[in-house]
Amino acid sequence: MTELVEHGQLFIGGELTDPAGKDVIEVISPHTEEVIGRVPHASREDVDRAVAVARRAFDEGPWPRATLEERIEVVTRIKDGIAARHEEIARVISSENGSPYSWSVLAQALGAMMVWDAAIRVARDYTYEERRDGVLGPILVRREPVGVVAAVVPWNVPQFVAAAKLAPALLAGCTVVLKPSPESPLDAYLLGEIAQQAGLPQGVLSILPADREVSEYLVGHPGIDKVAFTGSVAAGKRVMEVAARHLTRVTLELGGKSAAVVLPDSDVQAAVSGIVPAAWMNNGQACVAQTRILVPRARYDEYADAFAAAASALKVGDPLDPATQVGPLVARRQQQRNLDYIRIGQEEGAKILTGGGRPAGLERGWYVEPTLFGDVHNAMRIAREEIFGPVICLLPYGDEEEAVKIANDSDYGLSGSVWTADVAHGIEVARRVRTGTYSVNTFSLDMLGPFGGYKNSGLGREFGPEGYGAYLEHKMIHLPAGA
């Protein structure tokens, strides 16, 4: 049995503080279905306190007025602290959300460390002030921190997404109220410890685990200058609506239904070995997962057999077992959602090539077999709606024009990939698919480039100078002639 982790206080302004209320969040293991942790449930009063502390730290404190190098020193210590404790962080996250431990080490913990590191590189190279020759005379263009940031992160990759928001915000000189998901608040306490030990000044960071109601209060708070949100499309629309009351700036990273386009000249095994980890990563609970696999109709049976064999070979089990490739889904509701979509797919006429239910021998835990549907057409719900689990669709196409059309025929536009023997041609295909990120003969997410989506996949960008700029305001100063 996993040792119960209990936290009785909230991390507000860099200090552990008693919560205003007595409500508690219970963290349930998706593997054992037992309580593995308890933390305070932040209230509106706690939000008011955290925002007031962040406001004061931004308006009067040293952090926004520190030099860039001084901020980099502190952020570097946060990055190093995450690296030093990456195995502990990975274990905690796998226990909370079911992410396979091997994946947690690389993506949840070391991946988060890489985000912090990349943000430091971007901050160092960024231009904060420049002179220009204006139409009416010389001008000075400055970039200044946007202010108090509300960072709302999901349960699927909590440290990675927190880093995507915290690192640029802190380096820019902002103060932050971080709102972790109630499914995965335990790792946020580790981050709070690391930030405190790194010497982050008082008031700069608060961490408030809470549900949607309190999240909505936070993003609608008049003391917030910017909201950085990652989550579902429905929640993102609500965040934008609430933030609009105060014209609060927003960045939204939302859902996806990404297509992996396998061209006729591709090598079967190369495509399968590249796409399978990208489709079933993190138990399929990834917004960038390649959940629609498009294969040429003329070679459909060959690809169907190869993908089904690879999916059926994935090892399902305890997320803390280093050999596990697919763990349980984060909550019973997610398990039921996936099982419902499996039923819907069958009712729509799609054929289950492998999987389709609960794994044998895993009656306890919120498990769903790695499932591959064949004979899918793009009008089916399973091809259009984000399932967020280990349920993947295989779609045949006639020619390349049809493949690109299918890839673009989606309400989403977050990610995608193309697999071909001709990289130059793959780049041409990439240019035609309307998504924010794309890969040729690989699948990756580079922290020095812009990440975000078209259409319902979001608004704004994270990572790279484009994402860093979202935490800065632009100011123009007119100068007298000859200055």
Structure description:
This protein is of the alpha/beta class. It has two domains: 5-254 and 457-476, Aldehyde Dehydrogenase, Chain A, domain 1, CATH 3.40.605.10; 259-446, Aldehyde Dehydrogenase, Chain A, domain 2 (3-Layer(aba) Sandwich), CATH 3.40.309.10. It has 15 helices and 23 strands. The protein has helices at residues 44-60, 68-84, 86-97, 101-125, 158-172, 186-197, 212-219, 233-243, 268-280, 300-312, 332-348, 381-384, 400-408, 423-432, 464-468, and strands spanning 5-6, 10-12, 15-17, 24-28, 35-40, 129-133, 138-145, 148-152, 175-179, 205-207, 226-230, 249-253, 259-262, 292-296, 351-354, 371-374, 391-397, 412-413, 416-419, 439-440, 454-455, 458-459, 472-478. The strands form six sheets. The chain has a seven-stranded mixed β-sheet, sandwiched between helices. Strands 10-9-8-11-12-22 form a six-stranded mixed β-sheet, with helices on both faces. The chain has a three-stranded mixed β-sheet with strand order 1-5-4, with no helix packed on it. Strand 6 (129-133) and strand 7 form a beta hairpin. Helix 2 runs antiparallel to helix 4. It is globular, with a radius of gyration of 23 Å. The chain starts with a strand and ends in a 5-residue tail after the last strand. The model has no long low-confidence stretch (mean pLDDT 97).
